[in-house]
């Protein structure tokens, strides 16, 4: 009797209670136990102390997501492995996340706490068919790796302007330096292999599951299934006259006008810019002394004509314009940009017409927030991302346009990046996020234009700005009828 009592009191000290000795504690570990036996130890890592587990969980652009501890990480090597993983996760009732490049800063989009993380990095095959000029690749490479691989064929892919970003960026649309010529990255999809929420492996193309193919072209990733292979139209990549031009704060407003004029008037689709205003944590002293502007100017060809004259005619401090290969364009070496890196990062997005004075409204609201919130951010960045008419024409000419059904340009997206100070209290972090959101909301958006999901905060509900929202909702219902993905992984919601 007293022995039994003694045993019970020892058992009560076991975390998770007596039951934890008899059954795995919770659905995450149950799914992991199942997957360890079906896929084997080389594809499933459960030890939180293993190097591979630590590398995967540390590899998020928003460092706050590294705090989550998945029950295990699965590294599928085939679509079949992904299918087995989804079925085991479903059977256990566990939460999960799908991770490609880990650059989406929204919590639980590609991260999970106490559930199964599916890391796609082992699905990193790449090939090129020179007769069709189509490129086929798995989701596991970064775009930087893909650009380097396809450069050997003098080709490149439509994809993000920074090399560390993963293949999930094309599912969200994918804005490239080459988009004014060829449309968004997703417009260049020709065929996808997809493991849908049932676990079935299907093809999505103009002729097979065309509705799924539509949704995956800019409607986001982890809602309709897991893409295990992309076949896309590649494009030629020769020499690019390109570089960064950097100005002193005294020229900040002149540069803003040059950006606006480029967004409104440039008609050469081979000329492309991304313009980034940055605020450093140092005092501005009312003179914008804390502000740096970095323009990325890229011309597909060796002679840009007059396309960039409005930028080069303003006195600059640094000008690295010269001829580069495409991987070199992506790697343009920038001192400040080293700071646009892993940290406690969040995104917000806006959309505006190029023809009005919104470019100035945006800049004014952002500057005044930056000034009154000194001490709560490590870095602020504001990017102007032009959407010229050549881009929307190229988008709508392929596959009948993407999930955004982009209205005719010119208009532009503005992306706001906030890197908060590391180790803020929860209260300070939340109030900084709240006031940043209010600043972005105060600027407003142009009605009838889509918010870019790649740059959006989860609370912005960007899909609801798409004219195709009801159609996407129906497609979601068809491919995820019992709400498995909807209820068990993060991402854009359809309620
Ligand atoms: C430094 C930086 C630069 C950027 N530059 C650009 C740019 O130039 N152009 C642009 O368009 N965007 C850009 N972005 C935004 C970027 O495209 C998005 O953050 C995108 O979601 C990142 O994709 P990922 O694969 O790296 O991230 P992840 O977080 O791994 O994936 C993003 C989302 O897609 C889902 N997903 C990924 N792969 C699959 C798959 N195979 N099947 C199903 N779902 C999947 C994930 O579950 C997640 O919800 C940039 C972001 C950063 C941080
Ligand atoms: C294990 O996973 C398989 C799918 O791979 C599933 O069919 C089965 O029901 C799972 N077993 C348990 C006990 O959950
Ligand atoms: C790529 O272009 C370079 C320069 O024009 C040329 O020398 C090389 O042969 C080309 N390579 C291929 C694979 O076409
Ligand atoms: C340069 O700016 C002027 C207005 O000052 C505008 O008329 C012209 O179209 C712009 N050129 C380009 C290529 O942006």
UniProtKB/TrEMBL annotation:
Check the UniProt entry and state the signal peptide residues, or none.
1-19
Domain FAD-binding PCMH-type residue range list = 66-237
The Gene Ontology terms for molecular function here are: FAD binding; oxidoreductase activity
Q: TM segments?
A: 411-429
What the entry lists under Pfam families is as follows: FAD_binding_4
* Coiled-coil stretches noted in the UniProt entry, renumbered to this chain: none
Which UniProt keywords are present, listed alphabetically?
Answer: FAD, Flavoprotein, Membrane, Oxidoreductase, Signal, Transmembrane, Transmembrane helix
What family does this belong to? Belongs to the oxygen-dependent FAD-linked oxidoreductase family.
Q: Which PANTHER family match?
A: BINDING OXIDOREDUCTASE, PUTATIVE (AFU_ORTHOLOGUE AFUA_1G17690)-RELATED (PTHR42973), FAD-BINDING PCMH-TYPE DOMAIN-CONTAINING PROTEIN-RELATED (PTHR42973:SF22)
Tell me the protein's name.
Answer: FAD-binding PCMH-type domain-containing protein
Source species, please? Orbilia ellipsospora
**Which taxonomic lineage is given here?**
Eukaryota, Fungi, Dikarya, Ascomycota, Pezizomycotina
